[in-house]
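Page 37, continued from 36.
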């Protein structure tokens, strides 16, 4: 099966030559989402607001693929400052229930547009979790 792009009008358009997500069979690979408000095109202010918006963007892309947050199997959280880890965890816990997706978190030198957090994810649409 050929991979196909997934696009949501409820999430910001990609800021580069990539898809919001790509479906390959029952697996949906989501590109990293920043805390950009799709209505304004602007980055939310503050780490918590950026984390909320990034997760809302993920939820919107998943919905376009016929999935929900419960279909996520793994996420990767990229932070401009590991000091923001606890704040992002507080926000993250509002979007997920057990069983939580597997996750990794890294501090990086910089993120696009001066963002403080970016979240990438992978979902499985065949598990009937949605």
């Amino acid at each position: 099966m050929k991979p196909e792009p997934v696009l949501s009008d409820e999430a910001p358009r990609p800021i580069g030559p990539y898809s919001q997500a790509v479906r390959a069979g029952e697996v949906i690979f989501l590109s990293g989402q920043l805390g950009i408000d799709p209505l304004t095109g602007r980055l939310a202010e503050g780490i918590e607001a950026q984390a909320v918006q990034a997760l809302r963007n993920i939820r919107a892309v998943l919905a376009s693929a016929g999935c929900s947050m419960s279909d996520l199997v793994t996420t990767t959280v990229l932070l401009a400052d590991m000091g923001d880890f606890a704040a992002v965890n507080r926000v993250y816990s509002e979007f997920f229930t057990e069983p939580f997706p597997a996750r990794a978190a890294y501090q990086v030198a910089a993120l696009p547009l001066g963002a403080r957090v970016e979240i990438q994810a992978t979902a499985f649409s065949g598990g009937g979790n949605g």
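The mean pLDDT is 95. Flag for discussion at group meeting. The helical segments are 47-64, 85-95.
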